[in-house]
Design goal:
The protein is an alpha/beta fold. Helices cover 49% and strands 12% of the residues. It contains ten helices and seven strands. The strands form two sheets. The protein has a five-stranded parallel sheet with strand order 1-2-3-4-5. Strands 6-7 form a two-stranded antiparallel ribbon.
Length: 238
């Protein structure tokens, strides 16, 4: 329950006291202000102390689901060191904006572009500026695999870390889209090798890699693919 209800504080006390050290994070829905994150942080601290848990042990996943939340997303993302993830909630957000749609997380056919593009980008930049994971919310047509894949590709291309799954059939698509391909993983390693040789062995700041020039920015991009691929279980083949 969000902070506009009478249950939020009691939820946190009961869940944290009951789950103890087995709890890593709590998810706070419909976050609209940084003050709500600060209040959650302070309450978690008190419950941790009361239950003999390490202070700061429990992280926060914050959901942006309203127009007000989006307006304040930069302050929300910076409000507490407990925040680990920022999540977009498309259904409640569409209702908040009075969009002419009855199903959350899908494109509006009558709109000539992506009606959530600005929202996706604003949340992503706020999250990245504060070192957070950024996750897209659910796609409610759970039998529409092609539509789900399309939406996953849309947010992955922007830079999102993942998307919610509502049904087991969606999991394999998520893993496919949000993991690098083997070709991308191997190329990232090759870029890193070439740049390391150029900088450490030859004293160069940039070098040709096939038909493209690579430099420090290329190294950073390659490391992101290597890290993501490693978490997905990929092994270098070239």
């Amino acid at each position: 329950n969000d902070w506009s209800t009478k249950w939020t504080a009691f939820d946190i006390i009961e869940v944290v006291a009951g789950a103890g050290e087995r709890l890593d994070e709590i998810m706070l829905p419909k976050v609209e202000t940084a003050a709500q994150i600060v209040a959650t942080d302070l309450l978690l601290r008190q419950v941790e102390i009361a239950n003999g848990l390490p202070i700061g042990h429990i992280g926060i996943e914050a959901q942006i689901e309203t127009a007000r939340g989006l307006i304040n997303v930069e302050e929300i993302c910076a409000a507490s060191s407990r925040i680990e993830t920022i999540i977009f909630g498309p259904a409640d957000f569409a209702a908040s904006m009075e969009m002419p749609v009855l199903t959350g997380g899908v494109q509006i056919a009558e709109y000539p572009g992506d009606h959530f593009h600005y929202v996706f980008s604003k949340i992503l930049m706020a999250g990245r500026a504060n070192g957070l994971q950024v996750i897209d919310g659910p796609y409610l047509y759970i039998r529409d695999s092609d539509g789900f894949r399309n939406y996953c590709q849309r947010t992955r291309t922007l830079g999102y870390d993942g998307k919610w799954a509502l049904h087991p059939d969606q999991v394999s698509i998520l893993n496919e889209v949000f993991s690098p391909t083997q070709e991308q993983f191997d190329k990232a390693w090759a870029i890193l090798d070439a740049y390391t040789t150029a900088t450490e062995g030859e004293g160069k700041g940039a070098v040709m890699f096939g038909e493209e020039m690579i430099d420090e920015a290329s190294r950073k991009m390659a490391l992101k693919f290597i890290s993501r691929g490693g978490r997905a279980g990929l092994k270098r083949t070239k």
